[in-house]
Amino acid sequence: MFMLGATLLAAMMNSAARHVTETVHPFELVFFRNLFAFLFVAPLLWRVGMVAFKTTRLPLHAGRAGLNVVNMFVWFTAVSITPLSEVVALGFTAPIFATILSVLIFREVVGLRRWSAILIGFVGALIILQPGFHTVSTGHGLTLLAATMWAGGLLMIKSLSRTDSSVTMVVYMSVLMTPISLIPALFVWGWPTWTELGWMAMIGFAGGASQYLLAQAFHEADIGVIMPFDFMKLVWVSLIAFVIFSETPTFTTWVGGAVIFASGFYIARRETVRNAEKEKSQ
User: Fold this and answer.
1) What distance in Å separates the CA atoms of residue 126 and residue 114, rounded to the nearest whole number?
2) What's the rounded Cα separation, in Å, for the pair 183 and 66?
3) DSSP string computed for 57-99
4) What is the pLDDT at residue 187?
5) How far apart are the first and last CA of the chain?
6) Which residue from 46, 55, 92, 114 has the highest number of Cβ atoms inside 10 Å of its Cβ?
7) In degrees to the nearest 10, what's the CA dihedral of 262, 233, 169, 40?
8) Over pLDDT 90: what percentage of the chain?
């Protein structure tokens, strides 16, 4: 139930972002998204107190916040110009890129089965993009770039989780991303209407609540139980996009999205098994 709620809120956030970016620049949207998400996290900071800021890895927290801000700029720009179902389906490539980056950055050893899953994942992306048959749009490229940056963020989370609590990571993200995202927003600033502000408040709270529910889902159950429900993002966003924007996802989007998701799920599941084997050997 936590995961279903997280995927529904994520779909609502992306759909609302598609609507808002018709009149609000993505840079400004990212700032207000982070501002309202911070207001969602503020009660947690009030309850925990200054102990939430205890860390010896402030540069990595700052780097993660900066990367996530750029990632949001790219993602919301892609959402504004690309069919929502295609954006969500291609977004499932993040675990695939995370595995590749772990090899390049951490020199992690990846076996034949995970390399095979990576190859299958890229086949799924090609099914959606259909290069040679359809023009690969700027939005498609931005979506894959955002997925790559999110993969880098996942590796930062993996590193930070070894020393810092999840509360500390959430608090630093919320506190740092708002001022960082304000700087580029000032260059395209236009005062939003009350209606636009209401939509952006919904986007911020939906984004913050989605992250919270996702964390709770992983706390309650194993990744193998949780991750299959992540595919509901594509279901929810397709339904919303059909009703509101009259967008109908293509058959290749569903097939490619399913292939990419299956690949990412296998990689995540395999990672869990490997970690469990390491713990037993120790």
Assistant:
1) 19
2) 12
3) -HHHHHHHHHHHHHHHHHHHHHHHHS-HHHHHHHHTTHHHHHH
4) 92
5) 34
6) 92
7) -170
8) 14
* Amino acid, res. 6: A
pLDDT at 108: 73
Report residue 275's pLDDT band, with 50, 70 and 90 as the boundaries.
Answer: low
Give the chain as a DSSP string.
Answer: -HHHHHHHHHHHHHHHHHHHTTTS-HHHHHHHHHHHHHHHHHHHHHHH-GGGG--S-HHHHHHHHHHHHHHHHHHHHHHHHS-HHHHHHHHTTHHHHHHHHHHHHH-----HHHHHHHHHHHHHHHHHH-BTTB---HHHHHHHHHHHHHHHHHHHHHHHTTTS-HHHHHHHHHHHHHHHHHHHHHTT--PPPHHHHHHHHHHHHHHHHHHHHHHHHHHHS-HHHHGGGGGHHHHHHHHHHHHHH-----HHHHHHHHHHHHHHHHHHHHHHHHHHHHHHH-
- What residues contact 8, with CB distance under 8 A and at least 6 apart? 232, 236
Q: What is the pTM of this model?
A: 0.79
Q: How far apart, in whole angstroms, are the C-alpha atoms of residue 143 and residue 71?
A: 9
Written as one letter, the residue type at 231 is: F
Longest distance between any two alpha carbons in the chain, whole Å: 59
Q: Which residue type does 45 have?
A: L
